Amino acid sequence: MIKNYFKIAFRTLLNHKAFSFINIIGLAIGMTAFFLIFLYIKFELSYDSFHSKADRIYRVVSDIKTPTETINANCPSWAVASHAKQEFPEIESFVRVSNARLLVRKGNIKFQEENSLFADSSFFQVFDFKLLKGNPQTALKEKFSIILSQTAAKKYFGDTNPVGQTLSLTDRNLNAVVTGLMQDIPENSQIKADVLLSMPTLTNEFNKGLDDQWGNYGNRTYLLLRPGTEPKVLEAKFPAFLERRNGKEMKQSQMYPTLFLEPLREVYLYSTRDGSKTGNITNVYIFIIVAVFILLIACFNFVNLTTARSAERAKEVGIRKVVGAARLQLAKQFIGESIIICLIAFAVSILFSSLLLPLFNQLSGKVISRHIFSHLLYPFLLFLIAISIGILAGIYPALILSSFQPIVVLKGRFTTGTKGLLMRKGLVIIQFTVSIALIISTIIVYNQMNYMRSQDLGFNKDHKLIIDTDGDSSKSAFKQAITSLAGVTSTAMAGSVPGGGNAGAYSQIENVKGDMQVANLDLYFVDFDYIPQYKLKILAGRAFSRDFQTDTSQAMIVNEAAMKMFGYTLPKQIIGKKFDQWGRKGVIVGVVKDFHFRSLQEVIKPLSIRIEPNFCNLVSININSKNIPSTIAAIENKWKELMPNRPFSYYFLDDFFDKQYRSEDRFGRLFLNFAVFAIFISCLGLLGLASYSTTQRTKEIGIRKVMGASVPNILNLLSKEFLKLVTLAFFVAAPIAWYFMHKWLQNFAYHTTINWWVFVAAGFCALAIALATISFQAIKAALANPVKSLRTE
Amino acid sequence: MIKITELEKIYRTEDIETSALNKLSIEVKEGEFVAVMGPSGCGKSTLLNILGLLDDPDGGSFMFNGIEVAHFNERKRADLRKRNIGFVFQSFNLIDELTVFENVELPLIYLGVDSAERKKRVEVVLDKMQIMHRRNHFPQQLSGGQQQRVAVARAVVNNPKLILADEPTGNLDSSNGNEVMQLLTELNEQGTTIVMVTHSEHDARYSHRIIRMLDGQTVTENLLV
């Protein structure tokens, strides 16, 4: 029996090649899109879950309340971890990590290790990062102990064992001993490092007393709780703990932190405390919806095409019933056929997926999977999904087909019912609703990208080369030396450039009422040339000037946001007001117009700007657009002359600023691709339906032509019904897309408005594609000789 | 074998009710060859469908081998049908995707006969119908006469007690038609009961008895043998 089913299934597929192709390719594309999105989502959800103790590890974060605002920090102060460990037996262990930019050197090999961390010795006990060589208990215990990842070790030592060897940390003027070799940290970890330096190096050497500093932030703290500990209960004990240990200082500084525990596995997707660098659960949800819809569209095609073809299978059903088939047997046969088609589609989709995976990795900007078979479970799941689709999508056609009355179908009195037709129309509407919604969304995502790129940022970012001197003692000499180079139009130095990080400082500023108001202000350290070079607009007061000696120690410039924060309505009102920041006291000498020093996703925050040569490590160089390579070569020569120990590297500010939109860019591109997938599958379905519809109406078309209908009349007749469906779909899709994209745009502090033309464009686009799809069949039918088509009856 | 009494069948559309069978009573004995004749729309095909358990009556009684089957559900009807009744249609009704052999094999599959036994029985019947050499061909590759022989082979492969033939020669030329009628006669001689609906007086003469129908009722019954 089964053999018979297989036989008939394969022969039916072969006899109706176009139909089989449309069905299988449609399903395969749907499955491929679903599978790739599934891999992506799985990857996004897998962050940090590879740690065996992940369910007991929590990140400590804090909300710091000042009289002006509440700062959502991604860390507690340095002292919290060790003090909490002493006080709470629930805490089994803790790890602190802190960013360290290291210039590492071995003989002539030197690298600026951007990805380096100071880490507590418990790093390998709390986390499951694998130490290939060295003792995980002790490797980070002593000062000047360094652990390298495999990639880092290869750079310095090739294939020889690095453990026991020495590396020089040039800018710190010391040597560190390699005490371990660790496996490269997996991509799906929010902690990333190529080099680990033991925490005592920082707390006992570079910054003594850090362990007891309650007002100093800048480390990420992870707690490993004992089994059975309720994090909420522990969290509730923190306020009293802080009060006991740090109450006095809190009152003095008027900064009141509250500590929270974030489950490690949720940090990447759910925490909003790390800026835009981390994952985004909303995007994950959006992709889940897109994946499910694409798969549904493909399934609808399948159901539609199969039921549309039911007239052709009716005779077979009749015969089988006459010779003794029970309804259930027939239903099983048709579901079986549907499963076979789905399994063929599965095989094709596996092929498609493995071909597209490298492209998809590139598109998503991370290696979500090296190979589709890296986790055998996933293709197996797709296999199960294929079978489920076969069963689910097969049930409706099977029920329809197996319900045919043999006498009706064998006597040729069979017509497909209006119920089936309505259902097919309904499914086409849903398919196009999804496709049009995706087109609208894609246009809006791209609009937003354009908006962010074309927005006036309030500063000049063109032809600006940035070089990090990392605090080298020759940095000022370097700046001097390159200023006179041909091709260099201006130079400036600063601690931060737009798009990068900057310090946040505990500050007190005289507010409109005359009180010294406490606030945490973003802080830019600059030199005298920075404001003119970046073309920041002075609204009141003046820019820093070498003419005022006190500018290096007693002057501050704020932006409009800061001015408003302290209650002033006009820029000139804040000029001359007092400030007290990190021990520096003085007056505000100027107000700059707000400029976007972070991405347009964020509101422009209150910013203070001060002259502080010691912290100005970044050189901004405006260069002439002519002969850029030779200008850069000349700059490099000066660098080598003055800082021979440091590797030369640079970046352009516009690229650097743009990097902040990389994840949105990827999001947009992924969206575009899946919108194309969705519309392609929908059109395949439409093509199939149009072809069956014209076949069924062959006689009608023949009669109409005999009665005098022209080719355009027929074309109109055949296209109208499908175009009506697409139009209806548009009216369903437009408000849905508007709603979701309106919500999505709220992620951006500065966003485009949704224009009416977006909807018109998407609607026309869908209509044009649908019309092109249908026309092919319609023209063929309209041009057919009516004598021939009438004879077929 | 068949006894129907006061059988009724009414077709309803939105505004019209058509009585296809109007208190029809007929009896067919085992081993008989009966031809049913009458003008189009007289109800002969409806009768055949009810006899073949493809359709159910709206009233009256239908005894098949002494069992009342008029109100059997679809599953029971399918079961009774596959064990006892073979069909031959005017338009052959072979499955295009299956070969001659596979078409004939189909009823045996639904009867649950094992593959070796099926092969044996199909070969015997194909041999008898003289289409063994065409066993691996598809229906479209055969002439009308050959297709109808395959259909007859399929109808008899499970040795049914009753064969229902609905204008079996309607789509054939006279020589092929005669061949098919000859086949049916032979089957009848071997003990199979045959009820045949036909428009052809020529074909009807192969039967033992002709039932003539008009407006859902029997008009006359002529005994030929």
What does this protein structure show overall?
The complex is a heterodimer of chains A (793) and B (225). In chain A, 52% of the residues lie in helices and 18% in strands. In chain A, the strands form 3 sheets. A 6-stranded mixed beta barrel of chain A has the order 3-4-9-6-8-7. The longest helix of chain A is centred in the middle third of the chain and has 38 residues, at 327-364. The model of chain A has no long low-confidence stretch (mean pLDDT 88). Chain B has 7 helices and 10 strands. In chain B, the strands form 2 sheets. Chain B has a 6-stranded mixed sheet, sandwiched between helices. In chain B, strands 2-1-4-5 form a 4-stranded antiparallel sheet, with helices on one face. Chain B has helices spanning 44-51, 74-84, 100-111, 115-128, 144-156, 174-189, 201-204, and strands at residues 2-12, 17-28, 33-37, 59-64, 67-68, 85-89, 162-166, 193-197, 209-214, 217-223. With 225 residues, chain B is an alpha/beta fold. In chain B, a hairpin with a 4-residue loop joins strand 1 and strand 2 (17-28). The radius of gyration of chain B is 17 Å and the shape is globular. In chain B, 48% of the residues are buried. Chain B is 35% helix and 28% strand. Classes of the chains: A alpha+beta (793), B alpha/beta (225). At the A-B interface, helix 1, helix 10 and helix 13 of A face helix 2 and helix 3 of B. Chain B: Keywords: ATP-binding, Nucleotide-binding, Transport. Chain B: Residues 5-225 form the ABC transporter domain. Chain B: One of its GO terms (cellular component) is membrane protein complex. Chain B: GO terms for molecular function: ATP binding; ATP hydrolysis activity; transmembrane transporter activity. Chain B: This is ATP-binding cassette domain-containing protein.
SSE blueprint:
The complex is a heterodimer of chains A (793) and B (225).
Chain A: H1 2-15, H2 17-45, E1 57-65, E2 70-73, H3 79-87, E3 91-106, E4 109-119, H4 123-126, E5 131-133, E6 145-149, H5 150-157, E7 166-169, E8 174-182, E9 195-198, H6 199-206, E10 220-225, H7 231-253, E11 256-263, H8 264-270, H9 281-308, H10 310-322, H11 327-364, H12 377-402, H13 406-410, H14 418-454, E12 464-468, H15 475-483, E13 488-494, E14 503-510, E15 516-526, H16 530-533, E16 538-541, H17 551-554, E17 555-559, H18 560-565, H19 571-574, E18 578-581, E19 584-592, E20 607-611, E21 618-623, H20 628-642, E22 650-652, H21 653-658, H22 662-696, H23 698-706, H24 711-745, H25 756-783, H26 786-791
Parallel strand pairs in A: 4-9, 6-8, 15-20, 17-19
Antiparallel strand pairs in A: 1-2, 1-10, 1-11, 3-4, 3-7, 3-10, 5-8, 6-9, 7-8, 12-21, 12-22, 13-21, 14-15, 14-18, 16-19, 17-20, 18-19
Chain B: E1 2-12, E2 17-28, E3 33-37, H1 44-51, E4 59-64, E5 67-68, H2 74-84, E6 85-89, H3 100-111, H4 115-128, H5 144-156, E7 162-166, H6 174-189, E8 193-197, H7 201-204, E9 209-214, E10 217-223
Parallel strand pairs in B: 3-8, 3-9, 6-7, 7-8
Antiparallel strand pairs in B: 1-2, 1-4, 4-5, 9-10
Helix pairs in contact in B: 3-4, 3-5, 4-5, 5-6
Protein name (chain A): FtsX-like permease family protein
Subcellular location (chain A): Cell membrane
Membrane topology (chain A): Multi-pass membrane protein
